[in-house]
Specification:
A four-stranded antiparallel sheet has the order 1-8-3-6. The protein has a four-stranded antiparallel sheet with strand order 2-7-4-5. It starts with 6 loop residues before the first helix and ends in a 9-residue tail after the last helix. The protein is α+β, with helices and mostly antiparallel strands and 152 residues long. Helices cover 34% and strands 25% of the residues. Helix 3 (103-112) packs across helix 4 (114-143).
Length: 152
Amino acid sequence: MTAISTMTSALSVDHRGRLMRAAHEVSIPQGTRLFEEGHRADRFWIIRSGTVTLDMHVPGRRSPVIETLGHGELVGWSWLFAPYVWQLGAEAASPVRAYEFDAQTVRVMGQADPALGAAVAQWVGGVLAHRLQAARTRLLDLYAPYGSGGLR
């Protein structure tokens, strides 16, 4: 987990408080699919307890786990970027307790308060950069010929 992965390290106390007022607590049973790659991204979560795996569809193969997320981490970033379609899939690897946010509500909050919107965009952008690197590394580990996975 990178430092910017957690909301507490990325947002000011004021911005966190305002964002958390838009959240509601949910419990997600183990094995529940939170979202599927290619489907509409209309919400996101911050994990309170439990773990969520992110996976990626690979044609002709079983979807590999790209990353496992835990306490304090953001689940879902596709809700912030049009066309609001999930770029990965996610599943509860254990029972999960999380804060759930309605994406449209948070986008409207960010439009109404540009400082909040910029802070959320910077936070989510940092998470996105980390997830893309994790996906690249994991796919190279799984599918690249031996010795070809060196990072440049």
